[in-house]
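User: Run a structure prediction on this.
Assistant: Running it now.
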Amino acid sequence: GGSAGGRVPVSELPLMLHGETIEALIVGGGAVAARKAHALLAAGAQVRVIATEIGADVRSLAATHERLHLEERPYESTDIGSAQLVIAATSDRAVNRRVADDGHAAHRLVNVADDPARGNCRTTATHRAGDLVIGISAGGVPSAAARIRDSIAARFDGRYGAAVAALGTLRRRLIDAGDADAWHRAADTLLDEGFCARVENGTLESEVERWR
């Protein structure tokens, strides 16, 4: 049997990339390009923006981020270079298609802002609280993803960022000391069904301290 209503099953694969290892190319210089660049810079990526006209929002980002490089000129196929992530974000669908085709031919991750199905990945509505990163995709409806993200962010706030940081520090210390068994015991205790409640009532960090 087919899926309900004849719809194709969702095939998206959630995957976190190490931002500081990513070189990204954004073709386009408007508001969409600015949003994409801001998200990539927040993750630590190196970003190139190529566009026939680069807007004020992108220029403002470049003024405060040395990892953002601007080239105001038409896109050329050789611009793909070594970029692992290629983003087509112009207002010209023909240019976006060309960028996407070049990215696919070079076997890169490709995101097309105005036609996500033409790419092989899409960006998410992202919430960050320290080392806690939550990405939301909502079937190609970004405004829905943003609303869901904001609702999640209201609960999973800085308390969770602090808790995740404390757990990460404990895990590294015990494992680096060659005591993986101690980490597993700590995790069984600290990350049980009461984990969220203890983060929210402020008792988790004192429990982590007992394992140091």
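The CA atoms of residues 18 and 43 lie 8 Å apart.
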